[in-house]
Amino acid sequence: MPEIKIGLEVHVQLNTESKLFCSCSTSQAEPNTNVCDVCLGFPGTKPVLNEKAVELAMKIGYALDCKINKKFLFSRKTYFYPDLAKNFQITQLETPIASNGKLKIGDRIIRIRRIHLEEDPAKIIRENNYVLLDYNRSGIPLAEIVTEPDLRSPREARIFLQKLQQILEFIYVSDFSKEGSMRVDANISITKYKNKYDYKKGWIKEKKEGGRVEIKNISGAKEVEKALNYEILRQKRLEQIKRETRLWNEKTKTTVSAREKEEEEEYGYIFEPDLPFIEISEEILNKIQSNLPELPETKRKRFLKYNISEEIIDTLLTDPELTRYFEYLCETHNEKASAILLAKYLKKTLNYHNLKLKDVKIEVRQLRRILDLMQQYLITEDVAEIILREMVNDYVKGKKIREPEQVLRDLKYEKPLEEEKIRKFVLDVIRENTKAVKDYQSGEKKSLDYLIGQVMKKTGRRVDPKKVKELLKSELD
Ligand code: ADP
Ligand code: MG
Ligand code: ZN
Question: How many structural domains is the chain composed of?
């Protein structure tokens, strides 16, 4: 078996209002409108460091168990390319903001080598015979998170990235709904073992280390997995693997050679003379650390105690907003019912419209109301789902979101039957289905579902199956 080593360099766009070294906005806009002398690299302009970006990078450092550098400086990485108007990128070489961290995936520990801040270059758009440049992106703050080559398979790389993304969302440092908010350089090397005959030792395994190949600028975890899978197939066929930089083509699903890898020295790094040596006070560091939100892994452990299925919990944890709503609902209502309402019914409706909870202005109060109605057996789970669907529809159509009761009135919803009426149907069904009743009482639990079904039919489904089950059991057990 070949031995695979994978190390990732993950560039994450930090959630700041303004760019890393100037006050231009980071919001989406017409190309080349969020620009100024600094991010266009005019001679004589000077960078001013965005404090918020430092804070966010440090949050990542804490979340990934890193050692934080309170003293750091910036460097110029010089190269010529049209996306880099001033011919150098301001980044960090000797003193990353954080280093020596780790991220656990299952029982594997992936070491984080370093986290540093740098500015994004401009965006290059290739169109027919033109190359277009959008400098809106020039100077956007990035955190680069570099792992040790601890990952062992493309799949593990994907899981690592998904987990990393989840953490970054839960500590509110990055917004992954933005295009290009996570871009990855994936490094891979393969060591092959070959059986070889040695005239003294007999058959031996010969070790053959392949050169490290770096696949640049892949967007998203799934594409990284695909690119690495392709690269393994390609390298398996080669006798000699040379060190090089390749590019991933999302359309053809292949990698192509870009250049034989240059050494780091060739970038001619120098210290950035226009920025000071920065020192962050203990006080600020402590504040950042103590304000770090609870991490998804910790939440998961806490939620598992609520007797909710792991699947539902993991669905809640796909979105920090869904999780936040869940915690609010739990203050007043049953945890399991709250989790199911959000993770199953609301999430399904949101997914249908390709929406996130944070986009839709449904209030916690309104969800509590739906839970109340369910608790009082006034609506079933199915009806709760219909109400949510209607409310999300209001949002989609640009209308004011209706209250749950209003939705019920608009649907001319008939209240479920009174308990006494349901009991009457229950007794009828028991009388008419002596065989199923006998089966149930002699231990065949499945027969109860049959009986519940019979009652549901008789009532025209205007009852909660849970209520029916409760009544049947009280008659039969
Ligand atoms: P460079 O500075 O030339 O980009 P680094 O040594 O800083 O190279 O490593 C960059 C990335 O490459 C890191 O994520 C690291 O884990 C990974 N890496 C280093 N050596 C290997 C290797 N032999 N196989 C796979 N990945 C590697
Ligand atoms: Mg590199
Ligand atoms: Zn600017």
Answer: 3
From 382, 410, 438, the end of a domain falls on 410
pLDDT score at 72: 98
Rounded CA-CA distance 415/166 in Å is 42
Q: Which residues of the chain have pLDDT under 70?
A: 261-265
In this structure, what are the phi and psi dihedrals at residue 38, rounded to the nearest 5 degrees?
-70, -50
Query: Could you tell me the residue range of the domain that residue 457 belongs to?
Result: 419-476
Residues with CB under 6 A from ligand 1: 5-9, 146-149, 187-189, 212, 264
Closest ligand 1 atom number to CA of residue 187 = 26
* Contact partners, residue 162, CB within 8 Å, separation at least 6: 221
The pLDDT assigned to 263 comes to 62
Ion ligand 3 neighbours, Cβ < 5 Å? 22, 24, 36, 38-39
pLDDT score of 128: 87
CATH number of the domain within which 457 lies: 1.10.10.410
**Does 374 share its domain with 255?**
no
In sequence order, the β-bridge partners of residue 156 are none
User: CB within 8 A of 23, min separation 6: which ones?
Assistant: 36, 48
**Domain assignment of residue 289, yes or no:** no
Token duo for residue 454: 């019979």
Q: Which residues pair with 105 in a beta bridge?
A: 108
Q: Whose CA is nearest to atom 13 of ligand 1?
A: 7
Q: How many other C-beta atoms can be found within 10 angstroms of the C-beta atom of residue 231?
A: 23
Nearest Cα neighbor of 49 from 185, 157, 141 is 141
Percent of the chain with pLDDT strictly greater than 70 = 99
Ligand nearest to the CA of residue 96, numbered in listed order: 1
- 113 and 259 in a common domain: yes
Mean of pLDDT over the chain: 93
Which atom of ligand 1 sits closest to the CA of residue 263? Answer: 3
Which atom in ligand 1 lies closest to the alpha carbon of residue 9?
A: 14
Closest-CA residue, ligand 1 atom 19, reads 149
The pair of structure tokens assigned to 111 is 């070491």
Query: In terms of domains, do 196 and 103 share one?
Result: yes
What spacing in Å lies between the alpha carbon of 402 and ligand 1's midpoint? Answer: 54
Instruction: Write down the residue that tokens 């869904």 correspond to.
Output: 322
State which ligand 1 atom lies nearest to the alpha carbon of 188.
Answer: 25
- The protein residue whose alpha carbon is closest to atom 17 in ligand 1 is 7
Helix, strand, or coil (residue 321): helix
Distance 216 CA to ligand 1 centre (A): 12
Q: How far apart are CA 182 and CA 164, in angstroms?
A: 10
Of 234, 261, 284, the residue that ends a domain is: 284
Pairing of strands 270-271, 141-147: unpaired
The ligand that comes nearest to the alpha carbon of residue 137 is 3
Residue with tokens 């959000």: 342
